[in-house]
Each structure stands twice: as C-alpha cells, then as structure tokens.
Amino acid sequence: MTSPTSRPLTLIEVETLARTAHEGQTDKAGRPYAEHLAAVAEGVRLRGGDPGQQAAAWLHDAIEDGALSPAWLESAALPRTVKDMVLALTKRPGEALEDYAARILATPGALLVKEADLAHNADPARLCALDGPTRERLSAKYAYVRSLLGLTAG
C-alpha cells in the first residue's frame, strides 16, 4: 500500500523499472526480454486496458524471473490492484496450470494482461525462432492455458 504522502509510480516509471530489472535477460529466442514486456504492455493498451493493467503488463514476469522480489513489489508505490495482478500472473514453481489459470480468472484485470502475454508468446514470428520441439511444446502449453482461461484462439 502506498502511504498518503507518496505518489504512485507513473506508467513511464514502471516501464523504466521493468526495463532496468530485466536488463541483460533474453527470451527463449535470445531477444532482449524488454521487447516482450513492451509488446505485452502495448497489447494490453490496444485491448483497452487501463494504466494499471499496462503497469501490470510491464511487471508481469518480474517476480517469476527473479528480476524483482515479492518484497519489492509489496513496498512499491503501486495501487493494490496492480500488485494483485502481478502476483496473480506470477506462476509459482511446481504450480499446476489449472491453479494458475484459476488465480488469474479470480483477479480483476489480470485476464486481459494474460491474454496479451499469450498473444505475444504465441506470435508465429517469435515461435519460428525456436527449435521444433520447443516450438511444439510451447504452442501446446499456450493453447491449453488459453482454453483454461476461456480465451478463443488467437
């Protein structure tokens, strides 16, 4: 929770924090990880997501990837709704996809962020850079998660 005297981080500040936190990280195809974050945030914006959802998009992998800690998130000058979305979107080690999807569905705003994340993850231009077995495994996983979330193909 933010204190009455602190102001919430702006979307530009969240973007800068996320880019800095993920600096040096790459995706499975070897691209800078910030490209994925930017694409998800833009996907959220294009789907009509509000600034809180856009902030969650910038931070959606930060805890899962070890770029930021849960303690950082809890103390960050962000609305509780943004923190809740980021926590909902953070897959826990060993967690069943069914439990992960249920948490996303139960958290206001998180589904739109995950939809944008899955859309970018499943982008054929990104998938074609992967080896065949990885591409097939991830494509099946993304399709299954979409089905659990009730999202139509796309």
Keywords summarizing the entry:
154 residues; mainly alpha; 0% strand; globular
Number of strands: 0
What does the average pLDDT come to? 94
In angstroms, what separates the terminal alpha carbons?
36 Å
Give the helix proportion (percent range).
Answer: 55-70%
Strand portion: under 5%
Indicate the low-confidence ranges by residue numbers.
none
Order of helices and strands: HHHHHHHHH
CA radius of gyration is 15 Å
Structural class determined from secondary elements: mainly alpha
Shape: globular
Number of helices: 9
Main sheet characteristics:
none
Could you explain how this protein is built, in words?
The longest helix is centred in the last third of the chain and has 18 residues, at 132-149. The protein is mostly helical. 32% of the residues are buried. Helix 3 (51-59) crosses helix 5. It has helices at residues 11-21, 33-46, 51-59, 70-75, 80-89, 97-106, 110-121, 124-127, 132-149.
